[in-house]
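Supplementary Note 2. Why include the ligand at all?

Several targets in our set were suspected to adopt different conformations when bound, so apo predictions alone were not considered sufficient. For every target with a known small-molecule partner we therefore ran a joint prediction. The input for glutamine is given below.
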Amino acid sequence: MSEPASGTRYIFVTGGVVSSLGKGITAASLGALLEARGFSISVIKLDPYLNVDAGTMSPFQHGEVYVTRDGAETDLDLGHYERFLSTRTSGLSNFTTGQIYNNVITKERRGDYLGGTVQVIPHVTDEIKNAILAGGEGADICLVEIGGTVGDIESLPFLEAIRQFSVELGPRRGLFMHLTLVPFIASAGEMKTKPTQHSVKELRSIGIQPDILVCRVDRVLPESERRKIALFTNVYERSVIAAVDVDDIYKMPGLLQRQGIDDLVIEHFDLGADVPPADLSQWSALIEARSMQDASVRVAMVGKYVDLADAYKSVNEALGHAGLQTGTHVEIVYLDSTSVERNPDASLAEIDAILVPGGFGERGVEGKIAAVCYAREHRIPYFGICLGMQVAAIEYARNCAGLPGAHSTEFVTDAADPVIALVTEWRDIDGDVQTRTAASNLGATMRLGGQLCRLVEGSWVAECYGSTEIVERHRHRFEFNNHYRQRLADAGLMFSGFSAEDDLVEVIELTDHPWFIGCQFHPEFTSTPHVGHPLFNSFIAAARSQKTEK
Ligand code: GLN
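The joint prediction is reproduced in token form.
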């Protein structure tokens, strides 16, 4: 390994006591602070579950599948990192225990271990260390977040691997940051540090001494408690950071900065005292923008996983970003598509804009089509993303182009008019031909990742982007069936974006409607709080101005 002065530094982020403490947001906020101080950052999320393929996991249980630009289907936490940092994640940024074991077993079966006994230590831990090394390469600082909670059986190999890794790195190259909970017990009227003490004890018993403790608290952490935590956990007092609950996640970088967390990291890594302080004005601007919102719109999100907001995490965030960009408070109303199907008028009456996000599987598709019909006829801004574009095309074919049997072969394999169908061959961003058939495995047959799309000059979508060439990320199997293009165009549907390689339909829009765009890609993955996303910003602006006119 290279000399400490030149190589990548690693911050290992673990969590204790309970899950859902906001480890991802805390780590991303620290990353943002360090980025603002001029360091390049990379991130890795290690997930202790056994699934090999995040793409086939249920969004009901795990939240959305986040797609990286290079086409990896990953944990939704990577989305936080891309929204907080300018760094872009990739297939090297997320590993599950299942993938690690899969690699080890493949190597074993190939004979790479020459018949030796294959064990957790060193084979599994070596595989983890290699993954961390690959993910961190080239960055000044790499954040490595370990999913789960210290004490779980599942995360042990990861913890053992990072312990070994930091020893091999040598001094001043690895830092352990541990996140815990310091609960307030109302009946006793005081905060309790014992769970934190135990969690650190657990970590130390496997050889990891945290350098920084971030304590999640619901009120100010008294100095006496900070001192006590420091004493019992062998952490410097100034390295015990209080993460007080915030009403706005964009307050996190500032909250951590005020306690000097970035200075602690820079000192620990010996990165020089002359690094200028972080300028957090862009983050303060966001907090300010939220307080300045002077109108509000109700956006209906019609989908299948409506009871789990995390299933549409990036779409929610992108709508929120658009609200910050346009001074508009965006209220998201989750509507189950089956109830929209039963009674579109009642469910959509009080709504200012309608969004149909991506989705798979048949349940609820007719409700989504009904929502599109309602938006088109009532001239309500409509934004269809992926499946949302496909249902918009089906609706138009059925109700405006005289094709009542129009459908997607995903839902009706022998549809009379398959306006959405499986395209068996396409080229990826590198120009390599990829294929799929109806019988292909669910795992690896999607059009995935960033692809170049050409927008039609003069279209509304090109106007929004201010460009006729864009790269957006995909995650779908089915496509608009080009055999129907002329028929629908003659009926008035505008096709305004095409894949550069294959002439696949990427965007449709209605020109005689206040705002009606469907896109085959997922724009939500590239929205950031600081600039939003051109389509989301324009969609919310349209909803806002239409509401004002009413
Ligand atoms: N189910 C559709 C397809 O596979 C849409 C996917 C999506 O919305 N992400 O093409």
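The longest strand covers residues 295-303. The first helix runs from residue 23 to 36. Comparable summaries for the other entries are listed in the accompanying table.
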